[in-house]
Please model this.
Amino acid sequence: LSILHLLSLVPPGPPTRPAVFGVSATTMSIRWEEPYHDGGSKVTGYWIEKKERNIILWVRENKIPCFECNYKAEGLIEGLEYQFRVCAMNSAGLGKASEASKRTVAQNPVGKCKRK
Model:
């Protein structure tokens, strides 16, 4: 890469707002679309942050970057309400966070019996 090209690189734009699906008492899956603008360099991974309803701070959820546009959060607390947001990363650094997902309560789907 030329010096000029490196100087023109910027962190990627925000991914789309994550959608929550596959909710249970302790897990939620989220999916999103890649950023509209990659900053001039391929997106190399995503960081997911979560927030509990009554807490101001966002907490990083994944220990290593996520390479797909979906993620399963585990170890959630039943009955708590969660929101998620996603940041994309490229060789220039970490981009701005996406909009936060809708608030979702960690609970098992209603009307489905658990098989033993």
About this structure: The mean pLDDT is 92.
